[in-house]
Amino acid sequence: MTNFELEASKLKIEKPQFKLQNLEDIVKIDAQVMEDWKSKYEELKEENFNYLKQINDIRTKNDALQQQVDGLQKRIQTITAHKESFIEAVNDLTSSKSAREQTETELSLAAEKLQNFKEEMQRKFREQQEEYD
Questions:
Q1: Distance between CA atoms of 27 and 10, rounded to whole angstroms?
Q2: Does position 11 have pLDDT exceeding 80, yes or no?
Q3: Which spans of this chain does the record mark as coiled coil (predicted)?
Q4: What mean pLDDT comes out for the span 76-99?
């Protein structure tokens, strides 16, 4: 075998070995990329889980706050009803007081008229007695 043939034979062997080496390098790079993607996927999956957990916590807090709001609204309704009842009672008392004051005024006028009538009757009685005397 000549030196030229030997070189040609070496090239024939080296060329496929070079291609094989390139393919092995590509496979390693692809494997690393796949590993990176898998790692990123797991990271995003965990991040998504944490977001879902936060959303669930927020919903739980929102439900608790809504229950508090409902309770406060019921208390407001109860207080409003008591307030309206109180106002009605005050109005009734005010009306009763006015009616009582009016009745007292009428009684006072009637007592005054009665007193005047009594005095008038006594005066007339005295006048009649004076006439008889």
A1: 25
A2: no
A3: 34-131
A4: 90
CA distance 88 to 46: 62
If phi over 0 gives left and psi between -120 and 50 gives alpha, with beta otherwise, what is residue 24? Answer: alpha
State CA 121 to chain mean position distance: 79
Say which DSSP state 96 is in: H
Angstrom distance (rounded) from CA 21 to CA 29: 12
Whole-angstrom CA distances from 102 to 40, 88, 116 are: 90, 21, 21
Q: How confident is the model at residue 17 (pLDDT cuts 50, 70, 90)?
A: confident
pTM: 0.48
Q: Tokens in use for 54? A: 């936060």
DSSP string, 64-78: HHHHHHHHHHHHHHH
- φ, ψ for residue 99 (rounded to 5)? -65, -40
pLDDT at 98: 84
C-alpha dihedral (93, 96, 102, 104), degrees to nearest 10:
-100
Please state the domain extents for the chain: 1-107
